[in-house]
Amino acid sequence: MVFIKNKSLIVCLFVSLLLSACNQTTYTSIKGSFVSTLNLRDSSMTFVDRAGEPFATWKFDTLYTGGILLADDDRMLLFGNQLEQLDIFSLSQGKVVQQWETPEGTTNALYLKETNEVVTANKNDRSLHFYNQKGKETKVITVGKYPLSMQEHKGKLFVINYKDTKLSVIDIQKKIIVNEIAIPTSSTGLLVKNDEIWVGGHGRGNKPQSNVQVYSAKTGELISEIETPLMPVNFYHDTRHTYVVSHGTNAVYLLNDKKEKTKEVEIGANPFSISRFDGKMVVAGYDSDDLYFLQPDTLKVWKRIKVGKGPFVILVRE
Hints:
single chain, mainly beta, four-stranded antiparallel beta sheet, about 5% helix, globular, WD40/YVTN_repeat-like_dom_sf, Haem_d1_sf
């Protein structure tokens, strides 16, 4: 009799696990190189190959507002500012493989090479949350109001507090604030290079921002301004050039090492994100639902494709 009860229990457990597996959403397996867009208005992700052709679309039941690739390049972390978990997808398996508990209010995430950790910014508790690779929260640091843009640079983590007037600088190893730099409120878009901190933004009220503000990473002083109208909100930097996306004028600017504008192009409608893929610059137009491929030296359009509705974040795997 005992044997029969145990056997019944095993069967019940097997059926339960089978039903659970069947209920989990699975997506097209993603292998090889890609550029993808996380599309906010239709809760989807579009994957595009080196030829500039979409080859897969993942449709989500959850509203994700951002994401990053993790160190192994197979796991992808997606978050939403109204979610209480970080969903970890395996691209090769096409499914969620982990869920990390996190408080509601996540605005951004970043993989930290220095410590092999993930840090998230949270607008509700005005804090940074640090996680190890198993999803265990290891540290929480309070910064400013609405932490948003983040970048790792030379052992430091730079954080723009969007609804505040300060940029927080964190020692990544010690997990402490080592500096705070005065910046305008509503700042967004961050680039740290050559001991300089480039800060973009929307502006305040009815006065939109027209300049990128450049600060000294050592002293925190404002050292220059670069006219890149209107509302510069994102950057990309390589060994030769710096690219600035200004969504108020639907413009991408190419700057040389002297901070001089050498090229500019008007593309899409309301661009936010820029990256590099297979030797081309890629820019997403949020309101035009397209992805532009640009020649890096001339900004000439190589290709334009339709993606999902409201492409807001670009992820690249090469």
